[in-house]
Design a protein that fits this description.
By secondary structure, the chain is mainly alpha-helical. The protein has a domain at 44-142: Fumarate reductase/succinate dehydrogenase, transmembrane subunit (3 helical TM bundles of succinate and fumarate reductases), CATH 1.20.1300. It has five helices and two strands, in the order αββαααα. It has a two-stranded antiparallel ribbon with strand order 1-2. Strand 1 and strand 2 form a beta hairpin. Helix 4 packs antiparallel against helix 5 (114-142). The longest helix has 32 residues, at 34-65.
């Protein structure tokens, strides 16, 4: 009896002859690299920014509703958990921005060689950290 996986690996080359397709690397043998990890994190931060945008809409609705709604949500955002959420949202915002700039460079055809790819990946992480810290210094000074 033939295994279904073996049947799915058989295909045809452009000249029509039968060939056996390779299996994709599995998690147990695949070594994540900085670019793949940063790409996945770019997608995750995009989702986090969408959730953060919903929090921003709630804040705007509370501000338009009245003092009690605004004070309630403002109190939540000033709690340790609210500040943690805002900090995480700030990290996601800056990371997504910096990684987006990196993707724009790729779209223009720059930065595909491995040394440049690794350097820009590390630059995205460094810029995210620096911009997040600068943002929170400004927040603390104004708060």
């Amino acid at each position: 009896m033939t295994d279904i996986r073996e049947a799915s690996m058989i295909g045809r080359a452009s000249d029509g002859r039968l060939v056996q397709r390779p299996l994709s690397p599995h998690l147990q043998i695949y070594r994540p690299q900085i670019s793949s990890a940063l790409s996945i994190f770019h997608r995750i931060t995009g989702v986090a920014l969408s959730v953060g945008a919903l929090l921003l809409v709630c804040w705007l609705i509370a501000a338009a509703t009245g003092d009690s709604a605004y004070n309630g949500l403002s109190g939540f955002l000033r709690s340790w958990f609210g500040v943690l959420l805002l900090f995480g949202w700030t990290v996601a915002l800056w990371y997504h921005f910096c990684a987006g700039l990196r993707h724009l460079a790729w779209d223009a055809g720059y930065g595909f060689d491995l040394p440049t790819m690794h350097m820009t990946g590390k630059a995205v992480l460094a810029a995210t950290a620096i911009l997040t810290v600068l943002t929170w210094i400004a927040v603390i000074l104004v708060w």
